[in-house]
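Help! Submission page says 'invalid entity' but I think these are all valid:
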Amino acid sequence: MSYLALLRLAGPEMLVVLAALGALLVDLAILRDQPARIRRWLGAAIAAAGCLSAGLYILNVPAYGRALDGMFVADPLTQMVKLVLLGLTLLTVLLSVEADFTDHISEYFALLLLATTGMLLMTSAEDLLPIFLALELTSLSLYALVALRRQDLAATEAGLKYFFFGALAAAFALFGFSLLYGVTGATGLEAIAKALRGRGFDPLLAAALVMVMVSFGFKVAAVPFHLWAPDAYQGAPTPAAALVASGSKVASFFLFAKVLLWAFPESAGGAGLTTFRAGWMPVLAVLAVASMVLGNLAALAQRGLKRLLAYSAVAHAGYLLLAVLAVASEESRTGALASLVFYAATYALTAVGAFAMAALAERTGGSDALAELAGLARRSPWLAGGLAVLMLSLAGLPPFAGFVAKFYVFAVALKADAVHFSLLWLVAAGLALSPVALYYYLKVLKQAYVVEPVPGEKQAGSTGAWAEGTVVGLAAGGLVLLGVFPHVILGPIEAAVRAAGF
Amino acid sequence: MGGPAPVILMLPWTIYLSFLGAAALLLIPARRASAARGVALAITLVTGVCAFGGGLAYRPGAELLTLTRVPWIPALGIEYFLAVDGINLTLVFLTALAAVAGVLFSWNVTDRPREFFALYLTLIGAVYGVFLSFDLFLLFFFYEVAIIPKYFLIAIWGSTRREYGAMKLVLYSFLGSALVFLGLLAVYVGALRATGTGTFDLQALAQVAYPATFQRWVFPLMFVGFGVLAGLWPLHTWAPTGHVAAPTAASMLLAGVVMKLGAYGALRAGVALFPEGVRTWQEPLAALAVIGIVYGALVALVQRDFKFVIGYSSVSHMGFVMLGLVTLHEVGVSGAVLQMFSHGIIAGLLFGVVGRMVYDRAHTRELEELAGLRLSRRLPFAAATFVVASLASMGLPGFSGFVAEISVLIGAWQSLPLAVGVTGIGIVLGVAYLLRAMQHGFFAGGEAGEINPPGSAVPPLPPITWPEKVGAGMLLLTTVVIGLFPRLLLDYIVPSVQPLVSAWKQGGGS
């Protein structure tokens, strides 16, 4: 394959990288003495232009194919996921326009774009080497982003914690990958599957599989690998936290499902109480149920919006793992992939909106404590309405997208084994915890709508914050639209899944 | 069949206009906020016209009429499917009446009126949506939409322990929803396995022959899940606290209409789909219903808070609905549907009197304190309304409650004779607690002539306003008319219940 064809396939990634370099160069060459506001605006404009052009490229250039023996793959499904990722980065960029937390403005936007590039590459990688490279590119950029506020003790701690956990996860990934290579002599996912055919589930394979799953468990913040998440969310600059919680989640889940399905189709095992069989399904099932339980229960005790969102993210990771589980079964595979993408995309949109709310509370009220939101409905009914949409969508209530997404994932999980309903216990656990989740989301809304503010204090939403407000509005609007007319995006996602050959 | 008159297509507009009205209310400028109640009244009146105008075009005894049917989420076989038969039409009528009455009884809401009425209309729209949906997913969609307005209505505008009551109510509702959610998924997958196509169309689902074991575990999920919202004992505890904490209009709607959502869901998604499941669980569920009737009445007998009396009476009366639903008998199920209508009207009236007429004036609901106020003299209209509503609630002949409850008991007589016997105790207790409340609340205390003794500092109570009189009159009239001419509704209800019954009889041999 010629380099030109490879360039054509990897056009979106190229455009994003170019934008990252552009942002760095422009700032370095001509903007060093300008006020921070202008530098932020220009950096954001370049970053947005990069994301937009990459998005337009995907929409207008139908370049599909496998390059370098599966090292880089572009099919309708990966392109769909990339569109989602680019949209999320775009929202993050918008969120950063007014966020005044660092002097390293161009570096900030460059890191944001590099992380995005890593996520885009994650979606397209079907070989252990590019998978590891993409994971590391994303992770390293995100570590730096989280620790960007160097003077702040909490941010430094968060960055360090994130980095240590991440480094450990990377070590696990590498160890697992090397064992896999040792077992199969291949690095391509499909080649691995071919080499494993008929081999059964021996201890060496189990060790490799578990190590790979540990590293992904870290990326998606599933219990018990979630410990970094609350601190990282809390300490990171809020726009960066938004990207960690949204784009990074989408890409990781997609890649997670892909690795399990492509490389280990015969090692799935069974996760039902009566159909238990060793493999990756029981491991995932345990991770899922632990994430749902611990995430939801820990979120109950939180007083800050960002920490609450972190634990809610853990809980949602549990729900998303259900979709990954359903990928294993032939009957539900199409639906499982579609529901995975739909759930991840709508969840990520909600997360960006919710972090925008946290950023707004921090900027106009001084902190992200829930108490800052007291009386928001009187000060700014529209923001409060947006917050209500976000929280209720996270709780999975209609008419918001979270409801349809949850329903779809659960339906697919049951469909995976319509004879024994072997995943029923997981679905039941998820549903049993949903009133718990509703309780803490309503606690947020209670602050906004019911509690009266303490007079004389600085309140969230008392002054304008158009960038954050716009992101909240866009996210809320999107969630209503997708909740009432889910087919608008569900249709294309299903079509893409089918076109990609499932 | 010659096709329905186009005027019946006004029915879906009850949903759309309510939601549009809610949005419109939020757009009223702040300085005109007091216009909100007028707008809300206008909207509920127009939706009422749509409900009755469209509904009366439906001939009693006709079959199911499709109003709208378009694909909605093809990935899961979900359709936007609205249809009407005699059962849901009855409940649409109820909603229309309760909606107008609720606005009239909240004419004095001055705190954030735009948001209050917007949430109120959202709730109404969702209720209409549940009743008109014939796609199970759509029904559940609207059912869940109805949860959130309840929380805010109670938590912001409520009274006694409002935040606790609101949270408890919402979490109980959501717990019920979780059971229903699971049932819904099971039905979908079960139908998929049996027929090969995923659908939520209630008619199609009713045709599917689910295996008996499947029915035995899915039916209780549906029935109990929806039953939570219908106040099924022992999951009823949200109802009294929630009703007491709620502002008047919300408690009228909660007891009057929202509890019916649960019963309606239990009928459509439980009893109508899983005859074998009903047969298996008939006796335990009937026992729960009867315990609810007796227990609710007993607890109502010892309450000190006037509103708690009415709250527990709702639990008791909803027990009749649940009992009727599991009779598997034409008269019993028809009686259950009629009881939904009747209790909706009567409970709305009772809550209106206690919450608006009495509490907003006397600022207490403690029966002991009310006993000293001699309200029968000072608020004669309230007293008279309460007496008539109580008589209706006791199930005296001539009121709608009598026909409904006697039908339920007749239906239950064959298969559940013991239940009928125990229910008799509940009826007697019903008379007792209402008489007690009536006596303490309105007629007790003081010698004649001591009403406003010279020198006492009792300020005169503000007189009953016209919106209250109109609202109360409307509901009173309804219960009397239906009590005297129950066929007005039974002609709608019975022909739509019959197909269900014949389906049970066919399934009986298997």
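Support: the input was valid. A stray whitespace character was the problem, and the output above is from the cleaned input. Chain A has a mean pLDDT of 89.
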